[in-house]
Specification:
Structural class: mainly alpha
Helix content: 40-55%
Radius of gyration: 21 Å
Largest sheet: 3 strands, antiparallel
Number of helices: 13
Strand order of the largest sheet: 3-4-5
Distance between the termini: 72 Å
Length: about 425
Amino acid sequence: MSNLKRVFVSFLFVFILFTAAQAAISETDWVDYPYGVQYVSGNTNAIRNDLNSKYTLWKSNYVTTSGAGGYQRIVSPESIQGYANCTVSEGIGYGMLLAVYYNDKTLFDNLWSYKQTKNNTTGLMHWLIDQNGTVRGNGSATDGDTDIAFALLKAQERWGGTYASTAGTELNKITTNCINAGDYHVKPGDSWDDHQFPSYFSPAFYRQFGTATGYTTFWNNVITKCSQMVGSARNNTSGLIDDTITHAGAGRGDNYKYDSARVPWRYAKDYVWYGDSFAQGQINRQAGFFNGIGATNIRDCYVVSSGNSCGSYNNAPFVGSAGCAMMVSSTYESTLNNNFYPQTSSYGIPSTYYNTTLQLLTLILMAGYMPANIGGGGPTDPTPTPTQGTGDPSAGLLDDMEDGDNQNNWGGFWYTYD
């Protein structure tokens, strides 16, 4: 080999190592959330190193180039609807969230590129793709769509470029296809609307969607509708809610299982980031319920009406998300630090795609590495209660003046001049 080739290969090797080294959370990524509590350890370096080690293991087990058309995809080795080693849009959303919070631009861009090759006619990703790249589940899933769009906004903060513009395009698609135009409820996807998934509700993300697009009234209306649906369908003592609910706000009797297990994780962000009072009440109910059970005794199914266990397994989606509920106040700080975070961290990798991915996502939230805004900034005042204005010029009302923003219902803005 010539000296020039040796130099080039050495440079390439060093570049790859340098790039890989950057794919990690760092000390400067940590934030003290403005509301609630978070996991506190005497050895922050050890916690950060453990989270980075887990991310490396997650990537080695659930990220592949096989069947990805020259890019990368998140793989589910376990079968989903009969397809082993498949990819779901939910996984792409989770992967993009992890990639941006772990500063992994290469993976982020590859997942985004893969997603674009699997879009349907609305421009959103089909929800299930087999290991060979064939679409097996037509239509989008709104949770994946939402997480992808939010990850793009965070990518703008992390790396700059045109990610925000791309996010805006995705949000237009979501607004048109995944939100019911009549009452602002969140549809399961762009191709059906027969029921709702409370675990798809992402109020913290919706607040940023409103800011990014200028349609704060629209997204506040979505948040209000989500709160109404959860408030109506949940067990008002335990906060438990069925995997799916009707449009009338009633549970469909399918219990608190692997879908609705994500509800505390979704609503904890809205409280610790923004201090939202509804989110606070929701996770406070769930914190009380799961603290009474104990981290090691939690199982993977609960009957909503009674709180009785109907499951067999103790795993990360249920314990980690319950741990996020403990972030509500100092009342649960000790059990968060000594029970729920350590138990969530203890599960081995690999487990399953879903369990391990939720393990990481809940751990970084509990530990302070999932800020509302990468690099700091953003609102910290308690959010106002949204009103029922439509944000639609056809509604006639110019502005109800109570939605806490300077956007009127005709798409314009109010300004004052000194």
